[in-house]
Amino acid sequence: MTGINLFQILNGLTFAALLFIVASGFTLIFGLLRIVNLAHGALYLIGGLAGYSVAEATGSAALGAVAAMALVALLGAVLERGLMRFVRGAELRQVLLTLGVAFILDDVALVIWGGDTFTVPVPPMLQGAMRVGGVFYPKFRIFVLALGVVVFAALWLLLNHTRLGALIRAGVDDPEMVEASGINIRRVFLGTFMLGTALAGLGGVVGGAFLTLYPTADAEILVFSLAVVIIGGRGSLVGAAVGALLVGLLNSIGRVMFPELAYFVIFGPMALLLAFRPLGLFGKAA
Amino acid sequence: MLEINNLHSFYGDAHVVQGASLTVRDREVVALLGRNGMGKTSLIRSIMGLALPQVRNGSVSWKGEALIGLKSHEIAKRKIALVPQGRRLFPSLTVTEHLTLLKSARATEGWTVERVFELFPRLAERRQHRGNQLSGGERQMLAVGRALMIDPELILMDEPSEGLAPVMVQHLEDIIVELREQGLAILLVEQNLYSALAVADRVYVLETGKVVFEAAAAALAEDPASMTRFLGVH
């Protein structure tokens, strides 16, 4: 049996950082709008591919990331205003609708980019390896870890120390009372949806640089994001962070220690957790 | 100022408001009385434009403007505020955050956070507490404070005294009287008849979704037959 070493722990942590970036957007939308957006993975993929194209064309990965976030936020706005409004409050229809959108986006990606595997180019300053506690580790993955921490801090400040954040939290608690207090909750919904999808786009560019992008990458990241949000609890930022760490580390360790049971190592504990805490670690009842 | 005419509202097939008509005039406290399940909360929700119950007939007019069909945030913008049954504070927001959802803490016009804290000094001491960390009385103060922050001319209060200790009910009555003196009109749903009679100018009694009795509060207090007949008070 192979032991666990620092390298695998770092792999787990950096994968967790990526998962957090993607799943934080997912949980924002799930928590406030009560929408399980199954198109989140497809938006990740589209964002990653668009970011790839922009980065290749301009030579700037940062520009690619910004373009990906903007494009996916725009797609999110179209999805929210154009489609989701017709199925508000009907959960099964929302799930089916977003699943349909995911299929369409996947096919659009296939038409535009084809079925090849793409790797978003890493900026030169983040290429190569650095020494971390005695192991050589890719600089870019350390950067992803830092980015995950920065995204967490930024979202935490937004949610807890701004008026928009208070509106979002109030909307998670009781959207009807937010509206009766004179606030157009639909605008808060739209803004949150765009923010959440933009995070999927950012995740696509980051993930595209170290996991690569290929036609089924969206479904894989979606399943992991779902696990993160279910474990952490709907709408909870801290829950998403803890869930991402658990899933990231379990995935990385599971792959080494029980490769034939890699998925079970994540979903077994998740099922057990749900048996005792159906709302997840940090979930609250609606 | 507020005129409700022959209003009909439904929860699905359940006809909960069945042709209610009433008016609230400028600077007036009007109490809406009636037993449980007679449609008082449904009537309040219909005025506020909340999604349910669905209004299918009748009119609600506010300073001459029809309110039916407006969303509740648009109704709030027209200076009608809601203090809902059960307070419905936001458990994850602090006291200050409840008061600054619509306005910045630095706003100086109309009701400000400071003015609410002057009215309810207890809330100032609790400003960093979250909605679910407050006592029942503090919760009701905050629900009233949150409503005041939209600078209302009319407040719809749905059973504000429910679950409060007698001393808090007394405090609430004082607040209602003070708000009226400051120029507000209040439509008050109340189970506690004596609390309602203490503050109201006029009362309506609602039975199975319509108004069956209307009188000046002072007149009802002198009319034990009507109290017994409509409110089961002996």
Class computed from helices, strands and strand pairing of chain B: alpha/beta
The portion of residues assigned to helices of chain A is over 70%
How many DSSP-defined strands of chain A?
2
Total DSSP helices of chain B:
10
| Content-based structural category of chain A | mainly alpha
Number-wise, the strands of chain B total 10
Question: In one word, what is the shape of chain A?
Answer: globular
Which CATH class of chain B is shown? Answer: Alpha Beta
Radius of gyration of chain B: 17 Å
The gyration radius over C-alpha positions of chain A equals 19 Å
Q: Provide a count of the helices of chain A.
A: 11
- For the record, the CATH architecture of chain B stands as 3-Layer(aba) Sandwich
Q: Considering the protein shown, what is the CATH homologous superfamily of chain B?
A: P-loop containing nucleotide triphosphate hydrolases
Q: What gap, in angstroms, lies between the N and C termini of chain B?
A: 34 Å
CATH topological fold name of chain A: ABC transporter involved in vitamin B12 uptake, BtuC
Neighbour order of strands in the largest sheet of chain B: 6-7-8-3-9-10
**SSE ordering of chain A:** HHHHEEHHHHHHH
Give an account of the 3D structure:
Chain A is mainly alpha-helical and 286 residues long. Chain A has one domain: Orthogonal Bundle (ABC transporter involved in vitamin B12 uptake, BtuC), CATH 1.10.3470. Chain A has helices spanning 6-33, 40-58, 61-82, 91-113, 139-161, 163-173, 175-180, 185-210, 217-232, 237-257, 262-276; strands spanning 129-132, 135-138. In chain A, helix 2 (40-58) packs antiparallel against helix 3 and helix 2 packs parallel to helix 4. In chain A, strands 1-2 form a two-stranded antiparallel sheet. Helix content of chain A is 73%, strand content 3%. The radius of gyration of chain B is 17 Å and the shape is globular. In chain B, helix 7 (166-181) runs parallel beside helix 8. In chain B, strand 1 and strand 2 (14-24) form a beta hairpin. The longest helix of chain B has 16 residues, at 166-181. By secondary structure, chain B is an alpha/beta fold. Chain B has a single domain (2-231), classed as P-loop containing nucleotide triphosphate hydrolases (Rossmann fold, 3-Layer(aba) Sandwich). The model of chain B has no long low-confidence stretch (mean pLDDT 91). Chain A binds chain B through residues 163, 166-167, 169-170, 172-174, 176-185, 284, and chain B through 48, 50-51, 71-73, 76-77, 81-82, 84, 88, 90-93, 97, 100-102, 104, 131, 146-147, 149-150.
